[in-house]
Amino acid sequence: xxxxSSLRRSYTQSGLSEQDLTDDPMELFEKWxxxxxxxxxxxxxxxxxxxxxxxxxxxxxIVLLKNYDKDSLVFYTNLGSRKAKDIEQNPKVSVLFPWxxxxxxxxxxxxxxxxxxxxxxxYFHSRPRDSQLGAWASAQSSKISxxxxxxxxxxxxxxxxxxxxxxxxxxxxxxxxxxxTVEFWQGRENRLHDRFMYVRKDDGWQVDRxxx
Length: 212
Fold this sequence. Notes:
Structural class: alpha+beta
């Protein structure tokens, strides 16, 4: 067994002070997202979304942020997946952007709602064609006997829709996460990290510094 207890390093890249904060959390999020993109971090829009089913069993996985505005985050998925089934039972989710290469993380909490059909159709047809076919080929989260089954289905669909527009699968869609809290975490030396929590109020955002 590998001893991981002594794996540690000091975080010295940056800090986050009250003067760096913005009135709206998405202004700061967008600034950090741009800095992550400019730093050539792989998959800067990758986010870990955690859901819980009706028995409070928690499931986490990575999805890609595909749109956002000042109030919400958007992602797409198979509507038969475990995450979609969890959301049907409990729309509350937590989302983590793990930008650890920059010694940063951002956490959103909020509730999911289904996107409109027009939003889903527009995004689906903007995807690469093979990604569209992949959505058809995979009954996400279901058991399969071998990878060859998945690949055979993909090539079968590739032939079926040859020279045709790939239609939107009825089982594919997206979600909008209306967030209520946003936490920004910046690593600092001696484990004295900077943490700020934005909490949505009727008249705007309340911001508090949290102990690390």
